[in-house]
Every structure is written in structure tokens, then in C-alpha cells.
Amino acid sequence: MTDVLLRGGRPWGLDAPADILVRDGRIDRVAPGIDAPAAQAVDVTGQLVLPGLVEAHCHLDKTLYGGRWVPHSADDTLAGRIGNDLARRSELGVPSVERISALLWRMSGFGTTHVRTHTDIDPLVGLRGVEAVREAAAGIPVEVRQVAFPQHGVLTNPGTAELLEEALKNGVEAIGGLDPAGIDRDPVRHLDLVFGLAERYGTHLDIHLHDGGSLGAWELELITERTRALGLGGRVTVSHAYALGQLDDAYQGRLAQGFAEAGVAVATAAVYSFPVPPIKKLRAAGVTVACGHDGIRDLWGPYGSGDMLERAMHVAYRSTFRGDDDIELALEAATYGGARALGLEAYGLAPGDRADLVVLPAGGPAEAVVVHPARTLVMKDGVVLHN
Ligand SMILES: [Zn+2]
Fold first, then answer.
1. CA–CA distance from 301 to each of 72, 84, 272, 377 (Å)?
2. Partner of 348 for a Cys bridge, out of 28, 35, 241, 353, CB 3.0 to 4.6 A?
3. Structure confidence at residue 238 (pLDDT)
4. How many whole angstroms from 214 Cα to the centroid of ligand 1?
């Protein structure tokens, strides 16, 4: 494997330009004026260098990306979107290995190196989605981790719990959950079941929580209590957590404190007009915040580009961030925050970290988010992919 020397870039977090020497898939040195005559040198003078972007919440199995345009016709309620998805997915050939591959290549071109995707599991689709995502990801330089996701409920959809367990036995990296009260109507049993599976199989847990207001807030308390009681800190994520964005300041603060102490992360997609969790407050309390697209060009919605810098812009915009330091929080969610939520090791820009890098023409992190310019170079495990 040839050593690579990125010359003259501005690694995020450093005050001055520095060269980065990559050896055997890892960052070997970060310093000005590195002398490495045998290395393949790439001049990136003045450009921003970021660690690989982390897509922490999407639904690869659902995507229609890469095929013909499918007119969007879902009625705009959660039940309507679920019904539209169920009714039309077989007609449209979802899940499709070809479409998932097309989307993953596009994500890679934007500098995404890691993806957590929620894959539908229910008695109709079985584990076909899991297999399609695996097959698509096999030849693509993006690390994909799946969540066994009960999109159509667990307790309300007999046979699903057994299939979720089968997926975990089959090596799926995380167990999912979905509105323990709003969809499954029994938060205690739902949470007992998914936490039980996470504990038994040693996996991560990532729960979709759309339930809002005091109901959602109560479920967030239940999730925090269980995470603490079972010692699953660092392995639990609540996705969307709309309720967090609807509560008063004091209640938000108490929940944030609980998340930080128990080790519960929050993932947001900041889509449409749904409430966005208070990112600044969560980060100040020490809570891990990650972000992702949610659906990308699917039966749930026609939007989504696959570019995590563009997604970070939406997160910043919906959070009404204007100052550079605030906007940088959105980039943190699309990189280090996602990496912590997914439990990635050796992630970052320090010597010893895996050489997953993105280079782009931006003067700093806020500009990278707002402008999200075309990427100059993407590297995965020391291999230059897009240059
Ligand atoms: Zn989702």
C-alpha cells in the first residue's frame, strides 16, 4: 500500500496548515513540512481537511435513488406514509440492491465513510432488506451498520419480534424501536423487549421517537432509566426525539442532564417542519448529537441528496444557527458526534486514527457547512477514492 502525503491542507481543529502523512491505512503524522519522498504527494494547499463524514440515520433499503422519478403521493400523516410505503414497495422493487449501491456510491463521493441505516423488518419483507443492504455495501468503500428496524410496529405486528431477534443472531449491528407509545401503544413492554435484545446480543439500540409533548418526554425518561439500569451507556441513541424540541427550557435541561449521565445520544435529521432537538443545549450538557438524512428519495418523501455537509446545513438552519461557532456544531454532529453514537474507534484527525478523510475548498467549518462545495478528495482507509 503506497503512503500518501496530503500537503498544505488545514486539518479541522488546528490553527495552522499541516501536512498529513498516511501509512498503512492510518494517519501516521500531522505536521508542517513532512519529508516523505516515497509517498504519493497530493497538493491540497489551503483546503479544509475533515474526518470522513458520518451518516448516522438513514433508510438505505427504502431508497428509489438512481431509478426513474417516482411521483410522490403519500398522504401527509405518519399512518399515511407507512401505508404508502407498504402498498407500493413491491411494485417498485424495494429493496433494490442496484439502487442502494447507487446511493452508497453517491454518498462516498460526498465524503461519507460510515453509515448507520435502519432496515425494515416485518413478516412481509422478512430479512430481505438486511440482505439487500449487505449485498449492496459489499463492494463499496463505505462502512455500513444496520439497525433491525420495526417500521410497522413490534407488539402490534405479530411475528416482528422473532424476526428482529433473528436479524441480531444474523449479525445485524443494532436493534431499533419505534414510538413505543404512539405506534405500539405499550411503552413498557416495547422498551423491555428492545432493551432486552440489545442487552442479550450486546448490540447498539437506536429508537425512532416521533411521539411529541409530555408523552414523548415521558418515553425519553423511560429510555434514560433503562439505559442507566442496564449499563448500556454509549450504546443507546434516540432518533428524532421531537418531544425534546417542544419542552420548556427547564425540562429540556433535566432530560439533557439525564442523557449525558446515562450515555444516551440523540440523532436528528432536521427535516420538514418537525421539531429539532436543542443541539446547543444538549452539547453544552455533554450529550452526543449525531445527524443523518432519514429517508433519501423514497416512498416517504422525495427529498435528500446523500451529502452530509448539505444535511448539516439543514440542521444548522433549522436550529437558527448564524454564528460560526454554532454552525460548527452541525458539522460536529455530521462527524465526531456520529462517530461517537455509532461507537467508531480510531476516528478523527490524529496520528493513529484511520485515514478516512475529506478535503474541500472551504476556509473553515462554517463555510464548509453553508457552502458545502464539491469535495476535492475523499480517502477511505488510506486509499484515495475520489480526487
Ligand atoms: Zn428514520
1. 7, 10, 10, 30
2. 353
3. 98
4. 21
Mean per-residue pLDDT for 121-147?
97
Distance 303 CA to ligand 1 centre (A): 13
In this model, does residue 248 exceed pLDDT 80? Answer: yes
The torsion of the CA quartet 75, 81, 83, 87, rounded to 10 degrees, works out to 90
pLDDT in tens, 287-306: 999 999 999 999 988 999 99
- DSSP per position, 114-168: EEEEEEE-BTTTBTHHHHHHHHHHTTSSSEEEEEEE-TT-STTSTTHHHHHHHHH
Q: Which amino acid is at 270?
A: A
Centre of ligand 1 from the C-alpha of residue 59, in Å: 6
- Answer yes or no: is pLDDT of 81 > 90: no
Residue with cell 401505508: 83
Q: How far apart are CA 342 and CA 236, in angstroms?
A: 9
Report CA(139)–ligand 1 centroid distance (Å): 25
